[in-house]
Amino acid sequence: MTVKRIGYHGEVGALVIVGSNVFPPGTLSLIETDDGYLEIWSLAQRAELRVLWSDVISLDGLGFATHDEAAAYLRGEFARRPPVEIAPAAAVAPAGAVAGQPMTVSRLNGQLVPARADTYPLALVAGLALDDTGAGFVATLTREALTLADWTAVAGTPSLSPGLPYFLGPEGGLTLIPEMRSGADFSNVRLGMATSPQTFAPTISDPIRL
Source organism's superkingdom (predicted)? Predict the structure, then answer.
């Protein structure tokens, strides 16, 4: 099998299987077969490619160490969309903010405070902090893809897990484990997906009260 370069090409806003075809974003999906192959299916309900994980490389020419790593990369690439022009929100953050932190708008005074999944009024995520902000200064939020060199302050690890969904943590931040406790004000909030180890693409959902 010839090694295949596969991925999302940001400059043209399309999914590319080099030497095969170009597809609109959101039109490819991945199936992992029982015999260890990765199959890429299009909306035409057709397998566009059947390949071993070891024959997959990124558009930048990088390979993968395991089957799971290659599959996660592909799922992350297939989830990417062209950036949507959404005007950023900005308001005073009394306690400050760190880059990538999910934030909400206080119902009391319209200021920005950290979002958290254990308190329903604070689970309505307005966006992610665009950069570090000192206490009492104006913070800017984004709902577009955000790239950080280190996600430790928000997700607990320097790098994210590509292709996996992230949720709002009980006390804030990003977590791979959704809130499932019922009662009180616990809420399940899906925030989006990591499209690379350092990039997070928000697709923020409304909180589901448990």
Answer: Bacteria
